[in-house]
Design brief:
The complex is a heterodimer of chains A (143) and B (470).
Chain A lengths: L5 E6 L7 H12 L3 E4 L6 H11 L3 E6 L4 H4 L3 H7 L6 E6 L8 H10 L4 E3 L5 H19 L1
Parallel strand pairs in A: 1-2, 1-3, 3-4, 4-5
Chain B lengths: L2 E7 L3 E8 L4 E9 L6 H16 L6 E8 L6 E5 L3 H14 L3 E6 L5 H10 L3 E4 L9 H12 L6 E3 L6 H10 L4 E3 L13 H18 L6 H4 L2 E4 H14 L9 E6 L4 E6 L9 E4 L6 E6 L8 H8 L1 H7 L6 H13 L8 H22 L2 E7 L2 E7 L8 E5 L1 H5 L3 H6 L17 E5 L4 H7 L4 H11 E3 L8
Classes of the chains: A alpha/beta (143), B alpha/beta (470).
Chain lengths: 143, 470
């Protein structure tokens, strides 16, 4: 496969905001990633199952309704149980209620096992750069 | 008069249907008990003798023939995949669509116990999948190695990750196993691709399985047995829906109530019929078959009563029998599997049992709606096929050929306010296959689609029109 990697995308939990993920999926595809988009209202179990079946390199979790602190914990642990504990986990959107300082929010999501967390206003380009860097670092580590 | 003969070596009866394709006429129908032990030719000869006696069709009039079979246990298969709700489920659906009886679906890596279970089940064929194209490949390769080491004799159809197929083929080939590689049943997570696996299963069934079961002695008379019976019914349903050249009946549901099982076939996309309904889960096959191995009006009559609850049977019969009387009757039906009702009370019991079987089978086949409460308000999620707008429901099987209450039985397939989340047909035309020829139409779909579709349309009877009173 000549793709830069397989990514599973979805909007987690009871969240139906699909515009962000649609734009992100298009940008990621255009830059050469193999994108598997699960759409909206995706449960953690669906993310894990899709990642197993597609041998995904990363899970990109979108959460815009402010319930990220309810919907996101436990995903890393489920991946570990499913045998894909080392998968890259990214999260982005309006992941917490209201406007909060980003540093502590990022720390919260890092503690949940997410490799990267993005505040509102992040460009797709930044995600593409981070993914490219993180995936090539993993390849080097394996070699 | 050149006759095309369609034959079904069923698990209980061998049926013969004679059609004149030039004049698009149903010339005759006959049946006789299937004879597996003594050789299927005996049952076939008896059915043909009956056809001659009732319709005057001589052996010399038959210019071509085509056959299906579900005798000697039918096509018994095992499906193997990776994730239970993804490739394992996709493989299960492909095998069901090919008319198989799916004994079990295995997921993840096969364990020692799984392999023992496989050996015990002794399937006729195995469908091996796992991984989307370019996705996970280790599991299907390990499972191929495990199957190779287990010395199973069954032919294997491989329909998994394309990136693993060469390795899987080499492993199975080296072990001397009969393996056929086809396109992935789930090439992408949002694309189900069951047709190539279905075609491969059918071809192996035709070339090898019928021979292994000793059903090929009839070949001199009927030619090759080209597909399992349930696939013939599904193909018949598909032809009716699509029409021979476009003008078909549109989306439809067929319920096939047998002595041991109840099959439901739905033809149509099953896409949400109302705005705002969001589809979840694996994509659905356009032609979908489900089979309920626990619901049938003879062998499994006691299971229907157990599943539905005795109270529903008592009230269905208008309290003309009490619970103990009903239990005695259904236990007897489980033994007398070829019993045809004689008295009115037997017809009533058949109708109630069939209605309950259809109700439960549709509950399992049709899509379900669940509500998810989000900060933006409630959202309706669809799991499975939305059959609300399906225009036609057709009943086939013995109980529709001889039964007296077809309408009551088929109404059980429809939407009911008592289970509003089950998306069943809301206002369909209810039709019955009174002559029991739908399988024959499926067999003829390839060789004479126009005649087949026209004959079937002419012989579908409105459920209302058949005697619902004594």
């Amino acid at each position: 496969m000549s793709s830069k990697g397989t990514l599973v995308l979805g909007v987690i939990g009871a969240d139906i905001h699909n515009i962000g993920i649609t734009i992100l999926a298009a940008a990621l595809r255009a830059s050469g990633f193999n994108v598997v988009s699960l759409g909206i209202l995706v449960s953690q179990e669906e993310f894990v199952k899709a990642a197993v079946e597609t041998a995904a390199d990363a899970l990109l979790v979108s959460s815009l309704c402010g319930h990220g602190e309810l919907d996101c914990p436990g995903l890393r642990e489920k991946c570990t149980e499913a045998g894909i504990g080392n998968i890259l986990l990214y999260v982005g959107g309006n992941v917490v209620v209201g406007k909060q300082d980003w540093e502590p929010v990022a720390a919260k999501f890092a503690a949940m096992g997410y490799d990267r967390a993005y505040p509102p206003g992040t460009t797709p380009q930044r995600v593409i750069e981070d993914l490219t860097a993180d995936l090539s670092a993993r390849l080097e580590a394996r070699a | 008069m050149p006759i095309t003969l369609a034959v079904d070596f069923g698990s209980t009866y061998t049926k013969v249907v004679a059609i004149d394709c030039d004049d698009e006429l149903l010339v005759g129908v006959a049946q006789s008990p299937t004879t597996v032990g003594e050789g299927v030719m005996i049952g076939l000869e008896r059915a043909l003798a009956r056809l001659d006696a009732t319709s005057g069709v001589k052996r010399g009039d038959i210019t071509r023939s085509v056959a299906s079979s579900s005798a000697a246990g039918g096509l018994r298969m095992v499906a193997i995949g990776l994730v239970p709700d993804l490739t394992a489920e996709a493989a299960r659906r492909a095998a069901l669509g090919a008319g198989a009886k799916v004994l079990r679906a295995f997921a993840y890596e096969l364990s020692r116990r799984d392999l023992d279970e496989l050996a015990r089940l002794a399937p006729d064929m195995i469908l091996l999948s796992g991984g989307t194209d370019g996705g996970e490949r280790k599991t299907i390769i390990r499972n191929a190695s495990a199957l190779a080491a287990a010395h199973l004799q069954a032919p294997i159809v491989v329909a998994g990750n394309r990136a693993a197929e060469d390795e899987v083929e080499a492993i199975l080939g080296q072990a001397g196993l009969d393996c056929t590689i086809v396109e992935n049943v789930l090439p992408e997570l949002d694309r189900l691709n069951v047709e190539p696996a279905r075609a491969a299963i059918r071809s192996i069934f035709m070339k090898r399985i019928t021979h292994a079961k000793g059903l090929d002695q009839a070949e001199a008379v009927v030619g090759r047995i080209v597909m399992p019976t349930p696939m013939a019914v599904l193909e018949g349903a598909r032809l009716l829906a699509a029409g021979d050249s476009g003008a078909g009946m549109g989306d439809l549901v067929v319920v096939d109530v047998g002595g041991a099982t109840t099959d439901v076939h739905s033809i149509g996309s099953g896409a949400p019929s109302t705005p705002g309904l969001v589809s979840r889960g694996l994509p659905e096959p356009f032609a979908k078959r489900t089979v309920e191995g626990d619901l049938g009006i003879r062998v499994n009559a006691p299971t229907i009563v157990e599943t539905a609850g005795i109270a529903r049977v008592v009230s269905g019969l208008g309290e003309r029998m009490n619970g103990d009387q009903i239990l005695d009757r259904v236990r007897q039906l489980a033994v007398e599997i070829d019993r045809v009702p004689r008295e009115e009370s037997e017809h009533d019991l058949d109708a109630v049992l069939a209605g309950l079987a259809i109700d439960i089978a549709l509950e399992r086949h049709a899509g379900q709606v669940t509500t998810s409460y989000t900060p933006m308000g409630p959202v309706q999620l669809l799991h499975g096929k939305d059959l609300s707008a399906v225009a036609t429901v057709i009943g086939t099987g013995g109980v529709f050929a001889y039964g007296r209450h077809p309408r009551r039985m088929l109404e059980a397939a429809c939407y009911s306010p008592e289970s509003p989340t089950s998306l069943r047909p809301r206002d369909p035309a209810l039709l019955i296959d009174r002559r029991y020829i739908l399988f024959a139409i499926g067999l003829l779909a390839q060789i004479a689609p126009r005649a087949a579709a026209n004959v079937m349309r002419r012989h579908l009877t409105k459920a209302e029109d058949v005697c619902d009173v004594v």
